[in-house]
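Researcher: Good morning. I'm working through a list of sequences from a screen, and I'd like to move beyond sequence-only analysis. For each chain I'm collecting a predicted structure so we can compare shapes side by side. This is the next one on the list. No need for commentary yet; just the structure.
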Amino acid sequence: AERYYGAAPKELALESLIPQLSKISQFMHSTSRDAAERFFDSLRRRTYMTPTSYLELIGLFTDLVGKKRGELMTKLNRYTIGSKTLGETKVIVDDLKVKLTAMQPSIEKAKKDTAELIVKVNADKIVANEKSEACAVDAKAASEASAEATAISEDCQRDLDEALPEYYAAIKSLDALDKKDIQEVKSFAKPPPLVEVVLSAVCLLLGAKETWDDAKKQMNDSKFLDNLKNYDKDALACNAKLTAKMQKYLKRDDFVPEKVKAVSNAAMSLCMWVRAMDIYGRVSREIEPKKMKLKGAEEAKDAANEKLAIKKAELQIVLDNVAALEAQLEGAQRKAEQLERDAEDCVVKLNRAEKLLAGLGNESVRWNAASSVLEKNLKFVIGNIVLAGGFIAYTGAFTSEFRKDLVSQWLKTAVDLGLETDPGWRVDDVLVDPAEVRSWNINSLPSDDLSVENGIMVTRGRRWPLMIDPQGQANRWVRKMGKERDINVTKLSDPIYLRKLEAGIRNGSAVLIENVEEVLDPAIEPVLTKAIFKRGGQMLLRLGTEDVPYDENFAFYITTKMANPHYLPEVCIKVTIINFTVTLLGLEDQLVAEVVASERPDLAQMRQELVVQIAADKKTQDDLEQLILKLLADAEGDVLKDDSLNDTLDMSKKTGNECQERMKVADKAMAEIDDVREKLRPVATRASILYFVVADLAKIDPMYQYSLEFFVSLFQKRLRDAEASEDIDKRIMILVDDFTRFIYLNICRGLFEDHKLLFSFLITAQILRNDVHSKFLNKTPMTLTEWLFFLRAQEAGKGVLEEGDPAMPAPFWVEKGAWAKLDVLVRLAEVNGQTSFQGLLEDIARGGAWEKFCTSDSMASEAFPPAWANKLTAFQKMLIVKCMRENFLNLVARNVVQDELGQLFIESPPFNLESCFNDSEAITPLIFVLSAGADPTEYLLQLAAEKGYGERLHFISLGQGQGPKAEALIKLGWDTGDWVCLQNCHLAASWMGKLEQIQESQDPKKINEEYRLWLTSMPSPLFPVPVLQNGIKITNEPPKGLRANLGRTFQDISEDIYEACPQKPGEYKKLLFGLSFFHAVILERRKFGPIGWNIPYEWMDSDFQVSREQVRMYLVAQPEIPWTTLQYIIAEVNYGGRVTDDKDVRLISAFLKRYFNEGILDDSYKLSPLEHYYAPKEGTLEEVRDYVRSLPMDEDPQVYGLHSNAQITAQTQAAKKFLDTIISVQPRLSSGGGGQKPEDLVTDMAQAFSGRVPEQMKKKDAHAETYKKTADGGIVSLGVFHSQEMDRFNVLISRVKSTLATLGDAIKGLVVMSAQLEEMYNCFLIQKVPPVWGEPVSYPCLKPLNSWFEDFLERVAFMTRWLKSGPPTSYWVPCFYFPQGFMTCSKQVHARKTKIPIDALSFWTEPTDLQDVAAAGPQDAGQNVHGLFVQGCGWSVSEKRISESEKGVLFVQLPVIWMKVIPSSEFEELQNAPGRYRCPLYKTSLRKGTLSTTGHSTNFVTHFQLPTSESDQGHWVRRGVALLCMLDD
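Model: Good morning. Structure tokens for this chain:
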């Protein structure tokens, strides 16, 4: 951190703050990591804090702090300058007034001086004019003389112009010569005659002798050519003698350049020069008279000009004087004008200033206040921004409560570290403008704090956002916001999504990828990591195999509809995960708007318009203020220099006044609307509560998925259709009750029967837990203490209450465990200031009414003792019943629902397929959620027939290769309006994605309105969530309860079937009822768990229908009823064909014998020990149906062959399931008040366990008898068995020791917390045996963790005693991993002793009356065993046989039993004799296991022959009597 902060730009000036920033950053990271663990512990939501998050914090801080500081400084400067300018303007006004007064005398004096100067200037101008006229005459004469001289000069020049061209040509020709050319001429020893002539002429002109030698001498002169060029041609013109001499040469015919050139080029040039000299001289002589005349003219001109100059000088003096006076006059006039302008400017500025002050006079105070706020914010900028960076980098995945907790910790630490931070820090105050938030709200972002925070993370984060959006709120917001940027919406399942993404990157538009799962496509990784590079000055991003030009305006958004996705760290480092899951308050605000829109559409419309108008007006006012401040800041010191500021101010003031007036009206209207909204809020509160209960159902079963859109559509429907009322209070209650009822009925049709009461109870609980709503309903709110105690019982007091036994001892008739729970409940209530339970323990201890109430079998339905009946709420009463008799939990939960919501909410709505159809549309799938034993096909066919779709209903069972056929059928249905039913969707998991695409591609305009899609599926997490959320879910379970089951059976039986056996109508109808009774009993017996059936089989209606037809056939075909045949075919073939456990086969046969025997033909024959149940007399089908309807609603377990105690077992299991399911949807909240942290709790448990784990057993410590040698040198069989068991226990001891040590290190952070250790950690928190201690390294055991550990220690202790002290006199069979091995070894010992083959030996059990194991002596044949429990019956100690259970006693521990080894022949004789029940022994109460090679379950050990006075073994078989090696507590 120090390195990264140190590398920040120098202008940020962070050097002195680097230590504090580094520490706060480390603290943020560590606290966020801890929060992530708590987040998972409490809400089961996993998120990760990675090093990338840490770097993101630092990056965000360095990015934001400079921008924010600059933004604050700009605003502050503008406000400061604005305030300062207004202050200066006030001073200027006073100065201008003084200045204006002082300027008046100066202006008058300037006017007088100017008038005097004007008179003087005019007089001097007259003199100047006179002088100017005189001067003009002389100027004319001078001009004429000048013209004459010019004419003569021009005539001379014309003559010269004749001679000069030839002269210049000669000079040019000379220039062309060089020394070489002259040398050429000199080289002639005897020159050509014409050359000699030319040079003689040259010599003549140069004054030399006209000889060749003199010519060469002249040419030898280095300046020869220069002499020629510079020759004094004017002197030649005056030398007539020399000119005459030259004629002898010039008159020669050959003395011309053309001829001379033929001889020599150099001579030609010299010839041209001579001729040019001659011509120039001649012309000069001719113009000489003209020159003399020119000279006279020049002299006349000069004299005229001199005279003119004198006159001009005199005139100039006069003119200069006039000019000076005019300049003086102009200066005076300017000064006068400037004084007048200054005066006018003073007046204008004074008016401007007064106008400015009038317009902005009051703003100064507000601007000063705003400046103070900005100065404070500037002071807090470092602390505020570092918190904001942490908020964006770390808190996105958290819920509101976790965010607030983290911010409070960070804020305190920042202050402690000396980082100045705003005490009321809020991320929206720091990073976003209210106008921007208002625009988000207008674009469908909810206005609650969490949603606004999420909006900030989306818009301010540096990484692209991945939004957890199960309700689609983020999706809607992003879509609306993205319209301006031409947003492209796609899915990863879209085959061309990468092309759409590429187009967005290239064009700088926005792209939204929706409905992603937990794994993202690797193809988009470069986009997520912003892997941008520069090439050739262009920004590029490699997408797939192509480099795409990157536009910086590109924006990328990702949403998922998964409610609780688990994104691994490799995803978390690339994106900012933001939790958009709707909050109660956020949803409530949305639903209030729906209520107002329905109840007062005028107000809703007005509010919608006002929200937009107010937002626009506030923005306008803000913009105007910023414009005025900018103009003041840009005025460069003079705000009064022009009218632009005042013009803007006028315009702004006008606009501002209009805005202000509108806002006053709007604010008043909004206040009235808000009053109406608050009045109607209870309706929205109830709907919001209901939605969250419905949303939680998805945690119970993956098929219970409901979208927010679906929920809101139901809400809108009820707002329209509910009963109307002019009385608003009455209307509110109508809507609250109506929507609650409607949601219950609508959702229940898609819930399994077990979850319907759970649903209504959760609704009740959440209503009561909402303080505001429950008080509105005049109900006593449920406290958090009460709710936590309901969920956790005594565990709710851990860390809050001192541990120990209750101060008041329990009465003899109250179990100690129940009393301890009551004690915790009372003390927790007292700690939290509740008086509801004050005096409860004392009152119960007195007994009387309480004893009668608590021991009653109908406790759930009886009234509370009088003193408490009205003092406690229904929920508080339930807590007491839960403490005393937890098996009644479901029944009292029903009471709570009935008391709070009404009778309707404890009744299952009837199955009504037509109602579901009526609620559907062509694009809405209807989904049958299947359960074993239920087939909705018949109902669907019946509905299709009623609607005229018998021939237009198409079925297809999904499976391998059926997908394309199903798709074709669906598209056919779209066109024709046929119905399509896709069966068994759970078997086509790979095609479910395609089904989702098909559903999402539906266009209502292109689909026939009559089309319907029906889907059937078992619950499956692979079923597409969007299809579930937008579909109508329907469950059709077999009816619950004997009466309901019989009722449905006889409802489905038609008159034709009932009268199908005219040959033996009485027998057939009796047997038909017996078969129906048998079918209902074996189905309903499953609810009792293992005591009902070892394995809960899924018998179908088809089993009943086949058996019914066989009964009819045999009755028709045979004269006598073939009882044995029917018993075998029905029990062991039709129904038994599904049965895999031989003990269950025995049970089903015992049941059918009870109903299929000759006795059933007797009208007085009872089908159970209870009076109500018998086969009715022969009569009509309707009479049978009436009889079935008369049967009791609540059935006694005896009707199923069980003891009444089985009801306690069933109720206890149902209560446990009910409570566990409620807990599964709750966050893991602590009890509050200083309870231990989860990691501390686990650490303490691990340390306590570690200190008690025994050392491994060693063979060297063995007693002599333990591994005693046999005669043949081997170890005794039981010694071999002990050795094998000891090895298994040693492995388990080692595993327990090592994992406890590693877990402790992992909690301390010394080693990595692996998945296995994390699972172990979680198991410790919920008192569950960790899988790492379970099978195969351990033995099967269902005990909770603490009990398991105590049991483990006892087992090791028993094995250690056997090792060190020798074989015991009685063996604790439940101790062993493999008790079957013990049985075999025991028989082997006897076989070796008696020399009887082991295959010829069997065990015969002889119970003793010994309860004390130590009192048991050794047996000659076989072994004593102990520690077994019997379930389903009692035990007579005196008679040493099984008996009926005592009331409320579910398990009985048997005394020591002698497992006597006897010959198998003797065993067969004894077994066939009456008075013995062949009782199975199981390792655990679960009874079922894996089918082993022996044909028995792995849970099964052996059979014990227990004595009984009952002659019919079937009685105990139906009772479910079995022996167990251990209990579950």
